[in-house]
Design goal:
about 140 residues; mainly alpha; Four Helix Bundle (Hemerythrin (Met), subunit A); MAPEG-like_dom_sf; membrane; transmembrane; transmembrane helix
Length: about 140
């Protein structure tokens, strides 16, 4: 077994969570497409056909897409912290907090999609991410 930085655990956890959301997206999307007897058209403008699906089905796909956006910054900064040997202590706590908030954000968006609540969770996760970036910048520069 190779030694590794503890901060890699929340990285893998968020990647695994992204795949849970991918599965949830398809488990809800495919039956909705079948119920609507939607004929998929490769010539339709991007996303146009999926916009006809019920909102509560689209929310899962929207969240999956969101997990491909800001978390890429988390992956980069967490890997940076792991490489420089700073993937433990407060940085590890911040990383797990970020992951927890992103999972909470997923549930809020995928289940109730209350925008004010979703934004509050997103904002908090962004502050945590800024903390990780600050800590890495302090050590690098």
């Amino acid at each position: 077994m190779f030694p590794h930085s503890p901060i890699l655990a929340p990285v893998v956890a968020l990647i695994a969570w992204s795949m849970v959301m991918w599965l949830w997206m398809y488990v809800t999307r495919i039956p909705a497409i079948q119920r609507m007897k939607l004929k998929l058209d490769s010539q339709a403008p991007r996303g146009e056909q999926m916009n006809t699906l019920p909102a509560n089905v689209r929310w899962k796909a929207d969240n999956y897409n969101h997990l491909m956006e800001q978390p890429t910054i988390f992956y980069a900064i967490a890997l940076t912290l792991a490489i420089i040997g700073a993937g433990d202590g407060m940085n590890l706590t911040l990383a797990w907090t970020y992951v927890g908030l992103r999972v909470l954000h997923s549930f809020v968006q995928a289940v109730i999609n209350k925008i004010e609540l979703r934004f509050a969770v997103f904002f908090l996760s962004s502050l945590v991410l800024i903390g990780l970036i600050y800590n890495a910048a302090r050590l690098i520069f």
